[in-house]
Write a structure and sequence with these properties.
Length: 272
């Protein structure tokens, strides 16, 4: 069934609306989702200050605290979202609705990106103010390019995971928990990823978040002892490749999931 563009655009806005408006309407959620990541940022920043580490390391932690908000949104509001929808009985409605399933995922991604950007900005501003972090941006153009390519890649990963997680059924919750802490560690959220050693660091570079964080640190802390994984230009190229591959994979996985649902009825709540 083909659907006209205006219907799909309305579907994108409808799916994004709950995140753009609803997610920021509940003030208690906003407070908790800013405060809890800040506690981890404060803990690592105080450890670095106690160890008399270079001041830029505290800046690394503050920037990473903002990026963690995006990763948590990917994990819980993108990757596991279709599973929750199946639990609530909404997934069948999505599959029957005369709209593209890509429109649903795009709405989730756009809404989630806006909602998370509000929280990430609050973490960045408060953390920078409390610890007096100073930024020296080498190139705003390169910084914006790295940020948006990182977002495109990790939200592509989220869309790909949303189809795969749903097929795991009740294991989605455990899978999401399983990926949380290892990604924090391997992406080098609180330290330069090179500290893990060359072999582990290069292996971790398959994660777009690792490349994005490494490039952002090089661009906003000029002259800092970053010990980069690759040059910014190389990381931009790798992020572009990751964006194309992950989003292509997301479309393929979504198509497979939809066909599986039609053939076996496995995607309904009764099939679990």
């Amino acid at each position: 069934m083909k659907t006209d563009l205006s219907t799909n655009l309305r579907a994108i806005w409808g799916r994004a609306y709950v995140r753009v408006v609803g997610g920021n309407r509940e003030v208690s959620w906003l407070v908790f989702e800013v405060t809890l990541p800040l506690l981890a940022v404060f803990a690592f920043a105080l450890i670095y200050r106690g160890l008399r580490a270079p001041e830029q390391y505290i800046g690394f932690v503050v920037v990473s605290g903002a990026m963690i908000a995006f990763w948590q949104n990917i994990l819980w509001a993108m990757a596991a979202q279709f599973y929750w929808e199946k639990e609530m009985g909404n997934l069948e409605l999505y599959l029957m609705a005369p709209i593209s399933r890509v429109a649903i995922l795009l709405g989730m991604a756009i809404g989630g990106l806006f909602m998370t950007a509000v929280r990430a900005a609050a973490i960045l501003v408060i953390g920078s103010w409390v610890f007096e972090v100073h930024y020296t941006v080498v190139s705003w153009f390169a910084l914006l390019a790295v940020f948006w390519l990182t977002m495109a890649a990790i939200y592509g990963l989220g869309m790909l995971s949303s189809s795969l997680f749903m097929l795991f059924g009740r294991e989605a919750w455990h899978t999401a928990n399983l990926f949380q802490e290892p990604i924090y560690f391997l992406s080098g959220f609180y330290f330069p990823v090179r500290s893990l050693g060359s072999v582990v660091a290069f292996a971790a570079s398959v994660l777009p978040l690792t490349l994005g964080l490494d490039a952002i640190r090089q661009l906003v802390f000029s002259g800092a002892p970053v010990n980069p994984l690759f040059s910014v230009r190389t990381e931009l190229l790798l992020l572009l490749i990751a964006t194309l591959v992950l989003n292509w994979g997301a479309l393929r996985a979504l198509r497979y999931m939809e066909e599986l649902g039609k053939r076996t009825g496995r995607l309904t709540l009764k099939a679990q």
